[in-house]
Amino acid sequence: MLLVRPAAEPLSLGYCTNVHPAHSVADIANALLAHAVPLRERLGCDELVVGLHLGAHAVHELHDAAKLSALAQFLQTHRLRVVSLNVFPQRPFHSAVVKHAVYEPDWSTLERRDYTLAAARCLLALAPADASPLSLSTLPLGHASLRAKHPDIEILAATRLMEVARDFATLERSHGRTLRLALEPEPGCLLETAADLARFYGKVLLPAAVASGLGAKLLQRHIGACFDCCHGAVMFETPETAVRALNAVGCRVYKIQISAALEADLPAAAEALHACAEPRYLHQTSLRKEDGVTTVDDLHLLEPGACGTARTHFHIPIHAQPANALRSTASSLPHTLKLLEATGCTHYEVETYTFDVLPESVRAAESLIENLARELETAASWLQKSS
User: Fold this and answer.
1) Which of 129, 156, 221, 352 counts the highest number of beta carbons within 10 A?
2) Is the separation of the CB atoms in 250 and 207 below 8 Å?
3) Region of poorest pLDDT, from 90-104, 176-190, 349-363
4) Tens digits of per-residue pLDDT, 34-44?
5) φ, ψ of residue 135 in degrees (nearest 5)
6) Burial of 216 (0-12, 13-18, 19+ CB in 10 A)
7) In this predicted structure, what is the pLDDT of residue 361?
8) 257: in domain
């Protein structure tokens, strides 16, 4: 799905393929055949934008030039357009238990840097020749627990990110297309909110770029933000606050994930909310009371008898109407998207990767294809109204 805004850079809207349990290149192709192609037909669009999730295994396979060329041809043949990658989960994302492993390796490591650079080279080969800029969304440095073990974690991460920016600049000179790495704040991480990212960007990353000779301009061209609407809602961060903080330090929004979180009033809906806990993914949960907001690392850690408004990091379909006294934060999305439009971001995705672990109380459609179609149609209507 490709939306075009009048007198503006074309806006792309697609879905993130991290919803599919696809580990190898063959798995990815099979998942796209089974879901993306019929989804394109269901939507009646000439071309469907897909935000590919390429894990380390698939990226390693794509070192083979023949496999990379074959995948590019596959995408072209089936009219699937790739302008962005999700390289947040580096390791398998549909294991029986993922939890904290999704943040490994962190951004202080050469392993994370090298994987990201290899994925960027794949993106240059897989994206249509007319596509620029290209974006890659990644984790917000690592889990918050790293700070106690490695007090200099942000400085080490800044070094790795500057190395990526330098390589992206080199690739732009040789390929004529701009690559952008987008750090995605997430509850429970070193950078939980857009304000946290702005603080790191302005106080650590930009000064390091200037001191190293890389320069602020080149850094800002290649390193920016991915705004996940679910994550911001869980942290009770308003879009006004988020945009203001990022603008203040020149951190540009390069990717937007249109997603919704679960919300409930406690203790009335405590039983229904706790019933949504499941063993695969982390479901960080924030509780807002009169004296402020507190966050726990997973839903089952929420204090028994807690009172207040709870929001849980459980990506639910943006068109869903939860039952059993649960709510969705999707009602705020039209307003959020209107504010985010002013950032100039052109890469939008729906990202309900939790489809196969959704509780019945929030399952909006039995078929994944129908669910994705309804999400994309809903998101498109919001974006068109905000233009």
Assistant:
1) 352
2) no
3) 349-363
4) 999 999 999 99
5) -130, 155
6) middle
7) 82
8) yes
Per-residue tokens: 363? 């399952």
**Within a 10 A sphere around the Cβ of 339, how many other Cβ atoms?**
15
* pLDDT digit string, tens, across residues 89-126: 999 999 999 999 999 999 999 999 999 999 999 999 99
Three-state DSSP at 224 gives strand
Is residue 273 situated within a structural domain?
A: no
Give the bridge partners for 138, in sequence order.
183
8 Å CB contact between 199 and 225: no
C-alpha to C-alpha distance for 168 and 172, rounded to whole angstroms: 6
Does 169 map to a domain? yes
Domain housing 341: 2-261+328-386
Say if 283 falls within a structural domain: no
Taken as a whole, the chain contains a residue count of 387
Only one residue has tokens 């869903």, namely: 320
Query: What string of DSSP letters covers 87-144?
Result: -S--S-SSSS--GGGGG-S-TTSHHHHHHHHHHHHHHHHHS-TT--SEEEEE-SSSBT
**Residues ≥6 apart with Cβ < 8 Å to 224:** 180, 181, 182, 183, 251, 252, 253, 254
What are the distances in angstroms from CA 33 to CA 14, 20, 29, 77, 350?
16, 12, 6, 11, 19
Among residues 102, 136, 106, 140, the alpha carbon closest in space to that of 121 is found at: 136
Provide the H-helix boundaries in the chain. Answer: 25-31, 37-43, 56-61, 65-77, 110-126, 146-149, 153-175, 194-200, 206-212, 216-222, 229-234, 239-249, 270-274, 333-341, 368-386
Q: In the chain, how many domains are there?
A: 1
DSSP 48-86: EEEEEE--HHHHHHTTSHHHHHHHHHHHHHTTEE--EEE
CATH value at residue 80? 3.20.20.150
Q: Which residues make beta-bridge pairs with 308?
A: 266
DSSP 277: -
Place of tokens 């490695």: 150
C-alpha span between 121 and 103 (Å, rounded): 22
